[in-house]
Amino acid sequence: MTAAAAAGVRRVVLLSGSGVGEADDSNPLKAIEQTVRTCGADWTILRPDWFAQNFSENFWRLAILDGRLALPTGDGRTPFVDAEDIADVAAAALTEEKHAGRIYYLTGPQALSFGEAADVIGRASGRTVRHVDVTPEEFVRQQLSFGVPEPAARFLTGLLVAVRDGRGGAVADGVAEALGRPARSFEAFAAAAAAAGAWR
Q: Are 81 and 47 in contact (CB under 8 A)?
């Protein structure tokens, strides 16, 4: 990173994670953020919440098509952020000076449970989609049966259980701060994804 700055790179934008600021030093993104802050270039750090596109791309798309989204999230809520908003903020940070030295917390405008998100997707797609709450142990076994390595399965389970426990459900205004417009709603994401054929 310092070599990039020495070679003339003026701006660096890092896509980090939503809980990095509160994480302990074992979180690898914490060290990466520190490296970016001290690299010698103007820096901007983006800390997005769960991507809305997780439902329309590889992560949970097959579960949506199956009609059964089995996750250990209970009624916990999270403000899913549209990845297009993240891209717009990154582009602004790379091309405008006013974002130097800023950390943007990027979320959607409303926190939803996974059950509510499934209902929104069902209405947008015309499919029957339901969220099924499973235990963390069940979810780990499910991931292992899909060939996910155990450390990765347990890490993902921990992130989802954090949603169940009410951590990380706060709505932030980073999109509006950076772009001067509201973040896109989950309903708008679902309508666009359905129109593009994501769940056909």
A: no
